[in-house]
Sequence to fold (308 residues):
Amino acid sequence: MSRRGWVLFALLSVIWGIPYLLIKVAVEEVSVPMVVFARTTLGAVVLLPLAIRAGRLDVVRRHWRPLLVFTAMEILGPWALLSDAENRLTSSMTGLLIAAVPIVAVLVARLVGDGERLGPVRWAGLLVGLAGVAVLAGPHLSGGSAWAVGEVLLVVLGYAIAPVIAVRYMRDLPSLQLSAFALAIAALLYTVPAAATWPGSMPSDRVLAALVGLGLVCTALAFIVFFELLREVGTSRGMVFTYVNPAVAVVAGIVFLGEPITGTIIASFALILGGSVLATANRSADRTSTNTTEVQPRRQEDKATQPR
Fold:
């Protein structure tokens, strides 16, 4: 990988590792709809002009139905659920639970017929990763935290389904246009809920900075860096950053919010990360264990989508 590729990789790993920290700070003083509205609006303000200038608006119009469904599964529901869950969960735990997305994505792709056959290595990865989720979520399944854990797991499911929608129904819609218009739609739909829950007084500088960071850094800048990274190193190598994000989320929560690091956090991190690596391994890993001939898959990550 070139020096520029490494810089982009490191930058994106941090940018998409800190949203959970910023959401945790933001929900201290503003409503969930306000958090989502601020993030989507700022992101759309930056990306929408770029998408319009790039053209292909006829393709956007042609795919408006799947675009709405994609927006619901990727932004409308997940970002609200994440923000609400972080009223009760630590940012580090939220980031670790979200790390299960690659594992669930493999299962979803397999169920809908878009994934390749799973050999023993990838099945082992699924089981290890799901065990990590169980280790992390288990102690929180009683009391008020159970609902929050359920919310994050719904986010994981939404994040796993959204790329399937993009690949199946919007293959000819460029990623920039997909991202920009999804953000714009979400911002419009959250305008009324945000206005209804507008804070009675100006939020603190800390919260305002978190909202701006979510919109401009973790959304708009993240997409720009992401697209540049994919151009520089390709899709397969570019997606490796998803394995680094959970570590950034945990470290950010510990350093900036004083969140505890426990044996459960460490064990679940190792299990989820290890499971994700194995579950998303290419077919050559399974060929060392089986001689089964597999059909070339339509890779979900070919459609670049979301900042998380």
User: Anything to note?
Assistant: Residues 174 and 303 are 8 Å apart (CA to CA). Confidence is low (pLDDT under 50) at residues 288-302. The chain has one domain: 3-302.
